[in-house]
Design brief:
A two-stranded antiparallel sheet has the order 1-4. The protein has helices spanning about 1-15, 30-35, 40-55, 60-75, 95-105, 110-125, 145-160, 170-180, 215-230, 235-250, 280-295, 300-315, 345-350, 360-379; strands at about 140-145, 180-185, 190, 190-195, 315-320, 325, 330, 355. It contains 14 helices and eight strands. About 50% of the residues are buried. The protein is mainly alpha-helical.
């Protein structure tokens, strides 16, 4: 397995070398539509992973590409090309995570100005009556697990680098997710919650969606692991760590014992149409490995995370003369909007979305899990 681990570096470098800011080889949604790149969360996930690759491998080529992308989109006054703030899209915040470290390393004021603009967009973000961010303007009163990852680590990093170190609203929003979206029976969180309880996919009594989706749980888990690494010790961090640890304990119970992976609809293993999915599995591997490294999860979770990572490699990473490909990645899934009732949160919906290779929603968390494996090797 070690030789294959080493080949991962060449896989990631191949993707980087074949990419430009306008056309990244891991953004399959853009590639399939033949559209130019934009400031978006898919590339944002990958840039975060590339920064970690430089940190752990000391190879500056990964970080250099992240800087090239940032310089392409961020203008002298801090405006960001293609960003449409009026859409109030939490997904668009995620790519801003790379700005802090790039600012620290280069001193370029444009990065600070761009981070300010993204923070101001969050300050203006519509909220539910409980105070949680809407996921997007087109999803009024809706909170998705995905959105916690898209916005809250950026927000915590802004407070750490440029703000007043006030993490109370971050903790409050996650507390609301815990109170409204956790299913006590399974220990899992529903994909979405409509505070108005009027969305066609929402339970009229709870406001929650019908099912659990692996990648949404993965987004939430990764967000919580990253927040534990950003927020300093204290009552707020302690609260978030407990929520995270409880979820990881629950998720461990849904691991496929043979492969170490998790199912697209995690609480229905083996049901017709269900499959072991790469992106959410990689997110769980990363969260468990990182949580253990930070000392907030027992060592057994690092072992579980490594088993998951190796299971992904065995099942979905293929080595050929032409290169390396990572498969088993759900391309996309969501809830609504009103004019897209196919996305209804049903089991049938989640298993109907395309399964692809080499999309960053799977590649990026796979790389992040890989960096945690490398951390583990150095301990």
């Amino acid at each position: 397995m070690m030789n294959n681990y080493e080949r991962i570096d060449s896989y990631v470098l191949r993707l980087v070398e074949e990419s430009t800011p306008e056309k990244t080889m891991w953004n399959l949604e853009k590639l399939r539509e033949g559209k130019k790149g934009t400031w978006n969360y898919i590339d944002g996930c990958m840039l975060t992973a590339l920064m970690e690759m430089t940190r752990i491998t000391k190879d500056a080529r990964y970080e250099a590409f992240a800087e090239t992308v940032a310089d392409y989109y961020v203008q002298d006054d801090g405006t960001i090309l293609t960003l449409e703030a009026d859409k109030a899209n939490l997904d668009d915040i995620n790519e801003g995570r790379v700005l802090f470290e790039l600012f620290e390393k280069t001193g370029k004021q444009t990065y600070r100005l761009a981070a300010d603009r993204l923070y101001q967009q969050l300050e203006a973000q519509p909220r539910t009556y409980e105070g949680n961010f809407w996921h997007k303007a087109i999803y009024p009163n809706q909170v998705w697990l995905d959105g916690i990852y898209m916005a809250q680590p950026f927000r915590a990093m802004y407070e750490k680098y440029f703000g007043e170190h006030d993490y109370s609203d971050i903790a409050k929003q996650i507390r609301t997710v815990h109170e409204r979206m956790l299913d006590e029976k399974t220990g899992l969180y529903f994909h979405g919650y409509d505070a108005s309880k009027t969305a066609f996919w929402a339970d009229p009594e709870t406001g929650c969606s019908k099912n659990f989706w692996l990648r949404s749980l993965g987004w939430f888990a990764v967000a919580m692991a990253d927040l534990a690494d950003i927020i300093p010790e204290g009552s707020e961090r302690d609260e978030l760590v407990q929520i995270f640890a409880d979820l990881m304990k629950s998720m461990r119970g849904y691991m496929d014992e043979e492969t170490g992976m998790y199912w697209q609809v995690p609480n229905m293993p083996g049901r017709e149409g269900n499959y072991l999915e790469t992106s959410g599995s990689a997110m769980m591997a990363y969260a468990m490995l990182k949580g253990s490294r930070l000392g907030i999860l027992p060592a057994e979770f690092a072992e579980a995370g490594e088993k998951t990572f190796n299971g992904i490699m065995a099942k979905y990473l293929t080595f050929t003369d032409a290169g390396i490909n990572l498969g088993g990645i759900c391309l996309v899934a969501g809830l609504g909007p009103e004019n897209n009732r196919r996305r209804d949160g049903s089991y049938e919906y989640y298993i109907s979305e395309p399964v692809v290779e080499n999309d960053a929603k799977g590649v990026a968390p796979f790389i992040l899990a890989y960096t945690e494996i490398k951390h583990k090797e150095t301990l």
